[in-house]
């Protein structure tokens, strides 16, 4: 089928290097479209299904695709946007796996053989989530995808007998490259779900050997009373990524199921960099050591490598690191050091055993009164307070300190009321006073993007609007 879809795109005049922009629901045919693009040397460019027309206009103009593929009911809306952006072709693909793309594939003739590609040729462009500024298109090469897929399949012990329960979206590196590549490169199989639903996943777990998810999936699985050792009897590996996994979630899941979730660390631009071991200690709060073939270092702002245990920017180097940002050579140059390391923008430390601990984003670093405050340290402290489900810490402008520490707290259902003074007092009793929040706001949930990452800019905006209002206890 990938040969027929490749033939249909070839018949439209698409040639190696042309972009194919896809905003379609998850389906087997969607996955096969990705294979067809690899076969024909085309560049696969998936988009989040939540993006609205105003957002899609930017991607159509920036990616300059030769073809846009969308859901049938979106064609009337997106067609004019695509034409205005100079896109020659628009085809449709539904969640059921039908549409004009599949119709064209049924009648395709003269499909090309597999087009030879080098390790440097671009295979896919994935746009960043765009939580700050315009999204940037990360160009991932055939070499990036192949090396990372093989490394992960070996590191995580994949074999032809494995069956992955796939509930992740296909527009993100986690679902498209990590999950799919591990399965296909090992000759395994998948239970392919259109979306994550906790009840359905718990029901299907006994038929699988591996499950991959974002932290939100695991917290929702824990809310299902049917989750327990019996449901997980055939699973050999649970993997979590795309956002930090709370230590409490890790520990609760282990007590409930007997399984220690394997947490790993990756980025759109680098795919996977580190992983807790398949065999060995999986440390809560750590994303494990560097994967084979990948180098990780902690650097000071001037680029000097820091000794073990000290905090600095995480920088990586290896065959997994992307070629650069699409049509943005200046930003590409800025994100690499003079000696060729990719600057992740994440702050972290490496312990004496080589385990990496992420403490936050560099842009989220709070400098209060000239002193550095790492949000993750304060969040971990707040999360240890009885009755707190989770928290997020950001910096807000302060006339005296420059930045002030502010916390947004989500309380556990049914817990005793918590006041602002409780949170501040708890932190002051465990950390230096300058790290304690000067403001606390309580919410029912934290704002997150599609992959479960907390959108801290939304919290900064909220706290700015809340300035001067009394805090509420929960």
Tally of separate helices:
14
Question: Strand fraction band?
Answer: 15-25%
The assigned structural class equals alpha/beta
Q: Kindly, what is the distance between the CA atoms of the first and last residues, rounded to a whole number of angstroms?
A: 55 Å
Mean pLDDT score: 92
- Extended strand count: 22
The outline comes out as: globular
Assembly state:
single chain
Biggest beta-sheet profile: 6 strands, mixed
CATH architecture of the domain at 2-116: 3-Layer(aba) Sandwich
The gyration radius over C-alpha positions equals 23 Å
Order of the strands making up the biggest sheet: 8-7-9-10-11-12
Contiguous low-pLDDT stretches (5 residues minimum) are: 470-474
| CATH top-level class of the domain at 2-116 | Alpha Beta
What can you see in these coordinates?
The protein has 474 residues and is α/β, with parallel strands linked by helices. Among the domains are: 2-116, Rossmann fold, CATH 3.40.50.980; 367-466, GMP Synthetase, Chain A, domain 3, CATH 3.30.300.30. 30% of the residues lie in helices and 24% in strands. It has 14 helices and 22 strands. The strands form six sheets. Strands 8-7-9-10-11-12 form a six-stranded mixed beta sheet. Helix 1 (2-11) crosses helix 5, helix 3 runs parallel beside helix 4 and helix 9 (215-222) packs across helix 10.
Give the helix/strand layout.
Layout lengths: L1 H10 L7 E5 L4 H13 L2 E4 L6 H11 L3 E4 L4 H10 L4 E4 L7 H7 L15 E6 L9 E5 H14 L7 E4 L6 H14 L2 E4 L5 H7 L5 E4 L1 H8 L14 E4 L6 H11 L4 E6 L3 E5 L19 E5 L12 E6 L6 E2 L3 H6 L7 E9 L5 E6 L4 E3 L2 E3 L1 H9 L4 E11 L3 E10 L8 H9 L10 E5 L12 H11 L8
Parallel strand pairs: 1-2, 1-3, 3-4, 7-8, 7-9, 9-10, 10-11, 21-22
Antiparallel strand pairs: 5-6, 6-15, 11-12, 13-14, 14-16, 16-17, 18-19, 20-21
């Amino acid at each position: 089928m990938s040969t027929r879809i490749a033939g249909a795109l070839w018949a439209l005049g698409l040639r190696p290097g042309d972009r194919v922009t896809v905003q379609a629901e998850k389906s087997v045919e969607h996955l096969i479209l990705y294979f067809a693009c690899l076969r024909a040397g085309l560049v696969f460019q998936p988009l989040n299904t939540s993006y609205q027309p105003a957002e899609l206009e930017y991607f159509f103009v920036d990616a300059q695709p030769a073809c846009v593929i969308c859901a049938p009911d979106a064609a009337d809306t997106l067609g004019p946007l695509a034409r205005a952006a100079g896109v020659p072709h628009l085809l449709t693909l539904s969640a059921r796996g039908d549409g004009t793309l599949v119709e064209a594939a049924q009648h395709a003739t003269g499909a090309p053989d597999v087009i030879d590609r080098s390790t440097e040729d671009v295979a896919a462009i994935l746009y960043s989530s765009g939580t700050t500024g315009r999204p940037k298109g990360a160009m991932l090469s055939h070499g990036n995808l192949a090396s990372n897929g093989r490394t992960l399949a070996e590191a995580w012990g994949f074999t032809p007998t494995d069956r992955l329960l796939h509930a992740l979206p296909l527009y993100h590196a986690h679902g498209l490259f990590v999950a799919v590549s591990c399965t296909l490169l090992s000759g395994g199989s998948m239970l392919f779900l259109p979306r994550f639903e906790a009840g359905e996943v718990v029901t299907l777990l006994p038929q699988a050997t591996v499950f991959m998810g974002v932290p939100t999936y695991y917290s929702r699985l824990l809310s299902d009373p049917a989750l327990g050792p019996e449901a997980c009897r055939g699973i050999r590996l649970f993997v979590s990524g795309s956002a930090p996994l709370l230590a409490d979630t890790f520990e609760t899941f282990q007590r409930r199921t007997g399984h220690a979730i394997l947490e790993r660390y990756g980025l759109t631009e680098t795919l996977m960099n580190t992983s807790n071991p398949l065999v060995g200690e999986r440390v809560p709060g750590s994303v494990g050591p560097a994967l084979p073939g990948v180098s990780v270092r902690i650097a000071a702002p001037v680029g000097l490598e820091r000794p073990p245990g000290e905090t600095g920017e995480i920088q990586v180097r290896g065959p997994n690191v992307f070629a650069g940002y699409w049509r943005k050579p200046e930003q590409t140059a800025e994100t690499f050091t003079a000696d060729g390391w990719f600057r992740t923008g994440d702050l972290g430390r490496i312990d004496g055993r080589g385990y990496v601990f992420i403490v936050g984003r560099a842009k989220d670093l709070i400098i209060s009164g000239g002193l550095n405050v790492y949000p993750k340290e304060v969040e971990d402290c707040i999360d240890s307070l009885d009755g707190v489900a989770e928290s997020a810490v950001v910096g807000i402008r302060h006339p005296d300190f420059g930045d002030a520490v502010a916390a947004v707290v989500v309380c556990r259902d049914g817990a005793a009321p918590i006041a602002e003074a409780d949170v501040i007092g708890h932190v002051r009793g465990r950390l230096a006073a300058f790290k304690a929040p000067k403001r606390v706001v309580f919410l029912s949930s934290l704002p997150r993007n599609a992959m479960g990452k907390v959108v801290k800019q939304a919290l900064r905006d909220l706290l700015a609007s809340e300035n001067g209002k009394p805090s509420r206890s929960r």
